Amino acid sequence: MLHLIYILAFTILAFLAVSNLIRNLMTLGMEAQSYRGNQSRGSSSGSPSSRLRSVPHPELLDEQGNVVNEPFLVMRSMTVEDAREQLDALYNSSPGYSDEAHDEA
Question: Where do the TM regions start and end (predicted)?
Answer without folding.
Answer: 6-26
